[in-house]
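Memo to structure team: turn this sequence into structure tokens by end of day. - J.P.
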Amino acid sequence: MKPSIKQIQLRAIILLSCLFVSASAFAQSLKIATAANLQSVIKVLGIDFYKRTGITIEPIIGSSGNLTTQISNGAPFDVFLSADMGFPEKLFTTGFALKKPVVYASGSLIICSTHNIEFDNWERLLLTPAIKKVAFANPAIAPYGKAAVEVLKLKGVFSEIQSKIVQGESIAQVNTYISTGVVDVGFTTQAFVKDVEDKQTIYWKAIGPKTYSPIQQGVVILKHAEGNAAAEKFYQYILSTDAKKIFKEYGYIVE
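Reply from structure team:
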């Protein structure tokens, strides 16, 4: 028996409703290009943001430089959380971002190890035979790596430890080198300490902030998210008091 006109209309309405719900659900999921130093904190931020808005985020983790290259090549990301201001400023200048970047937090550089090392005179320690491998992220694409190089040069030990240097493509890779004992010491973000506090003991010392350029981390809404209200909500959330409280818990400096 053929369906009646009313049955056909009803089925059409149901189908359109399902399509609308599916489209709405898709619109409520955001792709967030996320600097590797935020690998842990972005999970906490994502959970908190979802509780407040019902919007899911999908972090794409990488070095700020590599993420910038991907965005410039058309990667469909909605918001970019960079480890510095230079990369998002470049994206805005070249038309890949809708707004000028703003600072959402500033990072703190530390030297750390899984070994019980006394870091009071760490620059001298790096020169001793006891330290065979020293890690930091690629300074060309990772702001924390750039800061580490600045400090090592200021302390006058950079050229002397060349044979000991192990470069990671991102701060996340450096953190893996440190936590697995691949290197004796590494330069990373203070957020790493919070990340592993329940898993293993880390010995660390904060590097004096006046010995490297401020690591001001910037956020931008990308061109791909033009007209996307959910992206705007996440952008505003990152600048909110609630998000700043979480950043602070992970060792970031917020105003």
